[in-house]
TrEMBL record:
It comes from the Bacteria. Residues 1-26 form the signal peptide. The keyword Signal applies. Keywords: Signal. It comes from Bacteroides graminisolvens DSM 19988 = JCM 15093. This is Beta-N-acetylglucosaminidase.
Amino acid sequence: MSVMKKQLVYLLTGWLMCGMGLQARAQVEPLFTYKISRDEACNRWVESQMKQMNLREKIGQLFIYTIAPDRSKRNLALLKNVVHTQSGRIAFLGRKTR
């Protein structure tokens, strides 16, 4: 690549990077979380719950187990295992099956 082409590539790259920085917008907090984050009673409750949790339970809050909402033996065994051995949340995804 010639020197002139290299200089042009550097110039365009720098221009694009600077331009992207100028176009960056401030992140907007959703209204739902905005209201909750400013609710003192809610914050006190969350803090009290966190103080009662051990490290494993706190880490478990970062995970969501997804389980299909059917009543097969396999799913019921999985659900029972997750409830008794894991920390975190459970989400039932999909439609109820017959």
